[in-house]
Design brief:
The complex is a heterodimer.
Chain A (H helix, E strand, L loop, with lengths): L1 H4 L4 H9 L1 H9 L7 H10 L16 H20 L15 H20 L4 H10 L3 H25 L1
Helix pairs in contact in A: 4-5, 7-8
Chain B lengths: L1 H18 L5 H8 L5 H22 L19 H17 L3 H10 L4 H18 L6
Helix pairs in contact in B: 1-5, 2-4, 5-6
The chains are: A mainly alpha, B mainly alpha.
């Protein structure tokens, strides 16, 4: 039990994440992916929209709303019930005007980028690569290129 | 009923993301700084489980527990995979969270991540508007 309360090692975490791929297929017949939920919520919130990307019946993809709602609940359980000491996941320095601005810009890039790339780390890097899809490998390499540009070239200008 | 099963899988995924510290800004930063192999090993071992499980599902022509056929659609290669991918990567390094972890961060009590979430929704909305004018 004490082992569960500590942070888990990679060889537990990674395989447990990988299991999401067959589990979601076998229990629900769905391909693993998270970032499409942004589109679903967009479609849900704009029923009479003229934007074609959001013109579909979100009830047909309602399962994804259940998935991300579960992730929120799981986040609570993991940090409050299954951790000896709940830990923060963002730097202290982000609790400032500058930090909030960075999260706003970063969040915009995440939402825009994942939809344009047609997937995120879940849908491309885990599900897509597991399915041996070249486009997913290309997308995943692009995610890393973006991350490296930000971390090595832009961060030094920001901090 | 199926949605309840998906909800439970989501809870499972959220717990793993938190306990594996995959939702930690610091872990993501260490990954991009090449300071720590942890995230690379997590991703590699997740794929190492994902690949054979899909091969087995295909070989056995496994069905869902509702008895339905399992269809896995292929994604076409687009310019968006690269351009959108890089844009997402820029945001990922700043927020320390890809979409799954954004939800888990909020649940874990890092409420500042609500800012990331609302901004990501707006970003997806901007994409929806801009889509007809973007290279495919």
């Amino acid at each position: 039990m004490e082992k569960i309360l500590e942070p888990w090692p990679w060889y537990i975490t990674g395989p447990l994440i990988g299991l999401m791929v067959p589990a979601l297929l076998l229990f629900a017949g769905k391909s693993f992916g998270i970032s499409s939920s942004f589109r679903d919520i967009g479609a849900m919130c704009s029923p009479r929209t003229k934007i074609s990307y959001l013109q579909y019946d979100w009830r047909k993809t309602l399962w994804r709303i259940f998935l991300v709602a579960g992730v929120v609940i799981g986040g609570f359980i993991g940090n409050h019930l299954l951790s000896a000491v709940p830990v923060p996941f963002l730097p202290e320095t982000y609790y400032s005007l500058k930090g909030v601005t960075l999260l706003l810009i970063g969040g915009l890039l995440v939402g825009f980028g994942t939809r344009y790339a047609d997937g995120c780390t879940s849908g491309h890097t885990i599900m897509g690569i597991s399915n041996l899809q070249w486009p997913s490998l290309v997308a995943s390499i692009s995610f890393f290129i973006g991350g490296l540009i930000m971390t090595w070239l832009i961060f030094p200008l920001l901090f | 009923m199926r949605n309840i099963r998906v909800l439970i899988l989501g809870i499972y995924f959220g717990i793993v993301l938190v306990k594996g510290q995959v939702i930690s800004w610091f872990r993501i930063n260490e990954m991009f700084l090449f300071k720590d192999a942890y995230m690379y090993l997590v991703i590699a071992s997740a794929i190492a489980v994902g690949i054979p499980s899909l091969i087995i599902i295909r070989r056995l022509q496994a069905r869902t527990i509702d008895g339905e056929e399992i269809a896995i659609s292929n994604k076409p290669l687009t310019k968006g995979n690269i351009i959108g991918g890089i844009i997402f990567g820029l945001g990922w390094a700043v927020t320390g969270a890809c979409p799954g972890p954004i939800y888990a961060q909020i649940g874990s009590g890092t409420y500042l991540a609500i800012v990331t979430f609302l901004a990501a929704l707006s970003g997806a909305y901007v994409y929806a508007i801009a889509r007809p004018r973007l290279p495919v």
